[in-house]
Each structure stands twice: as structure tokens, then as C-alpha cells.
Amino acid sequence: MDDAEGARSSGPRRPGATEDERLFSLPLAPPHAPPTPTPDTWRVLRILGEFVEGFDTLADLPPGVTVFGSARTRAEEATFAAATQTARLLVRAGFAVITGGGPGIMEAANKGAQEEDGESVGLNIELPFEQGTNPYVDTAMHFRYFFVRKTMFVKYSVGFIVFPGGYGTLDELFEALTLIQTGKIKHFPVVLFGTAYWRGLVSWLRETAAAQHKIDAKDLDIFTLTDDPAEAVACVTRARETLRAIAEKNGKTRSGHGLW
User: Which CATH architecture has domain 47-249?
Assistant: First the structure.
């Protein structure tokens, strides 16, 4: 993804644990201690609050496309310029641009969106290492919990464009592929930008995972591989038109967005 890939060397470490760390930690209590209210009981309200804030903040956003990629991408790299151009084209096509709000590819995409006077959204996350929101975000949100943030990426996007990245990028990529494969979301394009970077992963999926019947061969059609910003934007634009046609056929209207 983006900011989930770990710290950049310049980022100071936060004092104490993050909320995600606390959530997944087992409570320490004596073996025969009487039952007492746990922090998890109250944590549910905080999680609910994050969902409410996210839905409320993003409710009036036009259909968006989420751009993922490494926080470690430098401004002089070709993929930085490609992400900026892709975001410009997304705005011209009428999309909001959504990122994880941090540096690298996220900054590049928010920069392109802001330069085109489009909707530039950054959904940041609390991490063990400090990461500020990049200066090109107009609508910023800060989440404590990854799963709440992931819900916002999917709900308010009609597609993902995934630039080269590490563990965080792969996490978001495979979560989207799983949702599509299992039919949880439909007509949701996933574009892998950077054929040289993604070629090895695609070959492994085809020659190992599919060959050993761990996935179906047709599951390789879920994503598109490209090096062209215009092709990436055309892919998500086609999906948006398909979703509009389905909505009109079903007699449904859409005032905000989210899944069609």
C-alpha cells in the first residue's frame, strides 16, 4: 500500500502502542481473577465512532478511485510522476482521488489531484512510526484501526489503481482481489501499474497458484496490468459506466456514492 509498509528512516517512533496493537493484545489478568469490564468493551464504541466519522465525512464525495503504492517512492522516480499524471487524468474524468494520505505514491497522487482542482482525499493511519499527512490532501482523516480505514477505501471507490509497493500495498491489493473473487463487490476494477514490477507476482499466480488449482485461471482476469496512465483511467471509467447502467436498469438513483 502506502503508509503500512513500515517507517521511513527519518520517522521517529511513537511512544507506546498503537490502538491496533492494543486491540490485538491479550489481556493480562490473574488466572482466577473475578470478571471485570475489559477495555475491549469500550473500544467497540471507539471503533463505531471511526465508522460514523468516516461515513459522515465522505458521504458527499463524488465517485472515487483509490491509488495505492509505496510510501518510500521518491519524487525523482518515474512511478512518482506516473502517479501524479494518473491522478490528473482521474480528476479530468470526474473522479475523486483517494490515498492513504502519506508520502511517496500517496503524495504523488494527491498532488496530481490538487493541481487539477479535484477532490484530494487522504485517509491516514496510526502507525508505530510517525507519518504526517502530505501537503496535497484537502480532505484528511486519521484512523486508529486498519479494518475501518480499509472499509472506507472500498466503500467510497469504484476501483483501485495499485502502484509498486510493499507489504501494505500487497495487503490492500489482495483484500480487493478477495472481495471481487468472492462476489462481495462487483464491476470493481483493479489496475496494477508497472508491468516490470508486477510481472513476477503475476507469473507466480499463473504458473503456481493457478497451475496447482489454488485459484481459477479466470481469477487472473480480475486485474489489469499496464504502464499507461490513460489506460488505467480508462479501465476505471468503463467500470463506472457499467455501474451507472446497472443502477439505471434497477431504477436506483445515487446521491452520494459507495458501492453501486
Answer: 3-Layer(aba) Sandwich (3.40)
